[in-house]
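Fold this sequence, please.
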Amino acid sequence: MTEAFISDPRYEFSVPSQAYLKKTSFHFVWLVRSLILCLALAAISSLHPIGTSLTSLSLALWIGTLAGSIQAFRNITVRRSLFYLAILYGLFELVFFVAGYLVPEERKALSLFVAYGLHFEAVFWILALAFFFGMLFWRSFHFVTLECLVIAIGAVYFLSGHRDFNFSEAPRVISDLAWRFGLDNFSMLILSGTALTFVIGFYLFSTTVPSRPRIDREGIRIFHYPNRAPRYVLGTLVVVALLALLAIVSRQVYHSYYDAVLSQTANGVAQFQNSDEAIGKSPLGFHSALGSNNQPSALVRLDGDYRENPTSPMLYLREGALSQLEGNELVAAGKAYDDDITYTGPTERFQGEEDISLLERVPVTHSVYLLSSHDTAFAIDYPLSIVQLQNPAPDRFSAAYKAYSIAPAFSLDSLRLRTPGDPRWSPEKRKHYLAVHPDERYGNLAQEIARGIVDPAEQAFALTEWLSANAIYTLTPNHEVDPGGDPVAPFLFGDMRGYCVHFAHATVYMLRALGIPSRIGTGYLTDLSDSKDGHILLRMSDRHAWAEAYFEGKGWVPFDTQPEQVENHADSDMDFSLLEELMGLVGPDKELFPEDLLGDEVMVSESSSARLPIGSTLVVMLLAMLSLLTLTKLYLRFSWILPASPEKRIERLYRSLLSSLGDLGFLRNYSETPREFFLRVQKQLHLESLSLHAPMTTSKYAQAFSTSLSDQALVAYRSDTENLKSVEWWKRALGFLNPLTAFRFITGNLK
């Protein structure tokens, strides 16, 4: 590097100090730039696979960045450097051209040399770009601003695939990280955005440190103020304040959208709550379905085949029901009406009573392993019992339970000529399920669609077929609805654009207008063709709402719209590798006894949750502490050997001697000068001399640090350590195990 100094006295340096400062800052900035650029390269590779090894590209990036940084400080123009790169590229291309010409045509596909040549282009251009940008970084003061802007734009583009919370799109890294850390995709998205903001800020701060060398027409400048005291406390407070501001903004963004994410997952269907919390509320949303969400939700294992499923290959797993008409929306009515819903949490035991009036039913036992938290347990159709299972993998599953259901085994054709409703219902309950919407247009449209059809089941089929043929499925209907207005009317009597929430409400309103008791079921809808060996992976995109009608002897039957026209959908490809991974985690089901089952047993006591660590754990912890202590002591004793400036070397020599004396029990008092401390130690140990304090004092108050002063300190250090050998060896050995000096060094009190 060429040396050029500024005449301004604020920037004056002695030659050794300035050279060391530039070298350290140069290496620090180069390492930070290389690391950030490698992370950016990995992100680009995840979005658009390059085909060449990421390790090779990263190595080329590191080499190119270093070469460009070194070249920036030499008296060589950018044009000449680019000319040299062009010559190098031409030589390599010539070599590969000749090699390709010599290899026979029939062997080119098998030639390793030719195959490696296919990757040379990518490696060379990464190296060339890193070299070129490395030169511009050091020679243009504003280039770092451009780099930060490009990184910010790239970060926005990197996460833009998840706009409208569409987590099934690229980059899949968000979903993968969310799964590995046990978080939901939305939380992982916020954390990723926060981390990227922090990285950009760290990069801007690290590459603009005051000691960073800068090249201009006058030579190399270092913006540093040696005559000003370092404001470590103020700087720390500013950094902490900025980090706190970033955390507060991220938290506000998270909470601003979290309610929307909860109210609408993939199909606008959120989780159903327990009985008391659910009454009078609806987990459905009309404004937007927020996009596809492939976050894993649960693993379901069927114990045996359910071949009698009337809706095969589609399987409905009911979580809740909405049957009470309140204004322009259906809400939960509670167990007083929908008594077939469990209204119990996944960690609560449930025992129901079988309805003997329901015909053509078969028992279906299935185990559910939850991958995300749920307020209410869900199961196939009509569960009679739910028992808790031992969690086979607590780091993956939040809870596990087994459900025993009496599932329908009849065909949908058998619904014909069946009477709608249950003759055992009270007039109040029948009126509840037949409450019609005040807008007469629902009844008029239902009558028009079902004109000439007498059988209630045929009428229900006609309604769903009409909606399937005319409705358009979209995640973003964007209907304008006044507060308190009817959110279904713009769909059914407007553009017919909506999703399952719109379809279910419209179907129930028209069914009730025809005198057919109906409600909305909520939960999951999955395709059994995506299962493997009886195992089904449920995702948030499988959450669903559908219309149900009650027929005597059959119970609640789904009448679900399957629109033929799809504008955009919430479906996402099944991750079979994840499904197989989860299948490997679950073994034979092990039921858990209720907590009160063993309460009266005299010989059974509850195990304490607090347990002592096992012996091997204690040994590992002890070894880890000893290793940390040993490494700290070794650094204290021998760090002066490492390359450093004369000033730093004298400081390390002094610290090494203080460590040796501290191990012997001698620590400098707060008001004691170094000279007084050394004289006290010398007297108590009966030593001839301890002379390191002299060069240390000189260096502390000197205006310059020369190599000769460092050499004097080294001679004094060796003399003092030689004098300390007069102390018994066993005292010195035991002193090395004394952790006090290591703790003082870590806390900055070894002075």
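The chain has three domains: 9-228, 275-585, 615-746. Residues 1-18, 223-230, 595-614 have pLDDT under 50 and may be disordered.
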